[in-house]
Amino acid sequence: MIVLLIVLLLLSVLANAYLIRKRITEPTLIAGEEKDQKFHIPEGVLDTIPLGIVIANKLGAIVFRNNTADAIVDSWTDGVVGRKVLECLQK
Predict the structure, then answer these.
(1) Among residues 79, 78, 76, which one has the least CA distance to residue 89?
(2) Rg of the chain over all Cα atoms, to the nearest angstrom
């Protein structure tokens, strides 16, 4: 019974490693993008990360923030932390 569990565990680890390697080597492109440009990360994936992620454009305007960032920051416009983050992004 224990041997069977170990074999199943090893098979799942190998399958996951194969799938992860395949995803990394074959990025999904956004529609209309050229192959030499960076690949698109779906927002749902960024929402699963337990760290606050804030993505800004070149002008410092926030273009994405995940659920964890929203939970950490009290208010993006009126809160102390939110204003400080916005100030840092705009520098």
Answers:
(1) 76
(2) 19
Domain count, the chain: 2
Q: Scanning the structure block, which residue is given the tokens 């960076």?
A: 38
8 shares its domain with 47: no
Q: What is the pLDDT of residues 47-78, one digit of tens each?
A: 888 888 888 888 878 888 888 888 887 777 67
φ, ψ of residue 63 to 5 degrees: the values are -105, -20
Do 54 and 62 touch, CB atoms closer than 8 A? yes
Cα(66)–Cα(63) distance, rounded to whole angstroms? 10
Give CA–CA dist 60/68, Å, rounded: 20
Helix (H) or strand (E) holding 64: strand 62-65
Domain holding 71, by residue range, is: 41-91
